[in-house]
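Obj: model holo form, ligand = zinc ion.
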Amino acid sequence: MGKVRITEYLEIDCDTEKWCCSRCGHELYNARDNYKKGCLVYENPLEKVHPPLAPDASYNFTPDKDFSRLIEFYCPGCGIQIENEYLPPGHPITHEIELDIDALKARQADERQADQRIS
Ligand SMILES: [Zn+2]
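Output (holo structure tokens):
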């Protein structure tokens, strides 16, 4: 069947039902589950990403690490950053993309049949 692009760096291989990196093709995880489980995860320090702009902590625009953290998700194959999210400390990673894989495969099969009728 082939691959379907989902986001800039994510695609689904309908044959293997795997999330894949669109940059290097690395298989990340089961497409019926959260792709983030197949990514390398890094917590980037907020003071590095948002360095203080003023000496007074009340006005320096650096998020308070007691209330927020920056979690980044990378492809283990090529190292591209696939996604990031700001979460409260202790909050589990989010599962923001959940697709109907059976419907995706059926649509791809229909498109393939239509292409065969045209050619
Ligand atoms: Zn990759």
